[in-house]
């Protein structure tokens, strides 16, 4: 009996090691703790720096809204509004207002040329065509601003997606309507 137990012990240790590695990889990949973590961001509407104002003006001009949209849910319940704004100095920002979505791994804010489709049909369309990543999602709740590079032609992009780059799926999206 001593010999059989001696042979099984290395197999048991190997099995435990394999399970531990798989659990570690699964935790790293899925980041399940984010389901219980909320990140609220409350950024003010961007404004032109005082040095960029024309001389003699009383204050900064209000940002001009170029396009708007309402977020719809895809893989996760997502609500809020999207605005593309232009400041007096010509810089442009994508602004998420009142965002409420799930937290998740590797979430990005994308400008895309894909049509926004409701339901499962819309979950995976945003990486099929052109898209520009404006960066990591700062928080899964609140209002936040993302600079749009000067070389991006907004006429080429018709939607915004909260995109999970790890699993290639949209958490939510908004069709952009010119203002």
TrEMBL record:
**The keyword Thylakoid is annotated on this UniProt entry:** no
Keywords, A to Z, come to:
Membrane, Transmembrane, Transmembrane helix
Question: Membrane spanning segments where?
Answer: 12-30
Entries under Pfam families matching the protein: DM13
Q: Where is the DM13 domain?
A: 64-177
Give a yes or no for keyword Translocase in this entry: no
Segments for region (Disordered): 46-65
The cross-references to InterPro entries, in alphabetical order and at most eight, read: DM13_domain
What protein am I looking at? DM13 domain-containing protein
Instruction: Give the originating organism.
Output: Streptomyces virginiae
